[in-house]
Specification:
Chain lengths: ~210, ~210
Amino acid sequence: MSVQEIEPGRRERKRAETQARIAEAAARLAGEHGIAATTVDDIAAAAGIGRATFFRHFDSKELAIATGLSDVGAHVLADVIRAVPADLGPLDAIRAAYAHLGENFDELRPMFLEQALLSRSSSVLFAWTLHLYVDWETAIAAAIEPRFGDLAEADPRPRMLGALTMAAARLACDVWVAGGGHGDLPALIQTHLTSIDLAPAHLTPGVS
Amino acid sequence: MSVQEIEPGRRERKRAETQARIAEAAARLAGEHGIAATTVDDIAAAAGIGRATFFRHFDSKELAIATGLSDVGAHVLADVIRAVPADLGPLDAIRAAYAHLGENFDELRPMFLEQALLSRSSSVLFAWTLHLYVDWETAIAAAIEPRFGDLAEADPRPRMLGALTMAAARLACDVWVAGGGHGDLPALIQTHLTSIDLAPAHLTPGVS
DNA sequence: CAGAAGATGATACTGAGTCTCACATTTCTG
DNA sequence: CAGAAATGTGAGACTCAGTATCATCTTCTG
């Protein structure tokens, strides 16, 4: 009850800022000099912290890089989903969010391509990228949950749809990168997302 | 054209055997003493090879452990899918394969639970487990591909369905582990797999 | 059987990740 | 507002993962 009034704790905010600074430095240095040539000491120095502090924020070098690479482009999806008209169903909301994110894709294209190539250049980094995807899955699931009208207790659908969304993004990105980064990535993601038809009518009754 | 006649190369077979021996030793030692307490030297010694040879077979300690953990239970899915009646559609084939694998699940339950807990006990190991899942995705996609009647060039459906299958397995396993490993894991996977209804009719026309 | 190609083990080296400790900063409490 | 408690920080030491090199041995090819 003295200096800080509105804030939700000064420590937490500083911590988040430091974390973002580390991730940004990690991704930038890895992009400039390559992953192998970027040491934790370099990243820590660039972020203005000590080496020990680095590991208090990230479990590994690769996780910091992966976080820095994707903070720019992906975790925002959950926020966009929340901002989309409330009368859209879960899947439609995701599609609308991707459409919204794709609007100024051309500006971001070079950055996206560089990040996609980098995260696929090392299997360690790719593994950590996949680990991050699980976090986003959870975030997406939480964001679309209110849009299910008939949600039972412990309903698997939000999580499954979150996983499906991230899978669509990842596989579409694979195709996009294989094509040299030309082509419309957001549209590719939408194509992937809506490619499979899992209507109950297609299930053969009696199979197990 | 002297001693080896039928074999597909002696080198390749030995290499596969060594790899399996390493993975088995890695998973066993990690299960007995924990991941942190298991060094690459230990694993190499237990597998009867030198330290340098270990890294010629696996990119990391965690990948070897993850491979050893899951070789027992999951990569076989693709083979089972191929063995299932040819007139079943892609999704039905996957469901039938899970049903088949679930038949003697009770015997394997303790092993599955131990492995699931272990792979979730360390975020590094979990990241590498996710990395393996991508390989399985690909294997599953290849196995169900012939079951799509109308497959276009570079059709995303097999890969998407592969990803969906692995997501269902992973998320169901999360729920299963959270419930203490009681409950019917194969049935949980099936529930997850068929939970989301992605019929085209549900897509609102005009949403971007 | 001889040479090519590849696998192996030993060794040395870099750097990731962990731990501990002294010190600084923030938050809590009276 | 002060002092206490809790938490964040950097520095240094240490273990071990992961890489590179080289001599030796095994497997394939003709």
